[in-house]
Amino acid sequence: MNRIILITLFVFSTCQFSFSQTFEGDKKEIEKIVENIESFSKYYTSGDYDALANAYCKEATILPPGADIIKGREAIKKRWILPSGVNVPYHKITPIEIKIIDNYAYDIGYYEGKTIRKDKSEVSWKGKYLIVWKKEDGDWKIYSDAWNKIN
Question: pLDDT below 50 — which residues of the chain?
Answer without folding.
Answer: 1-18
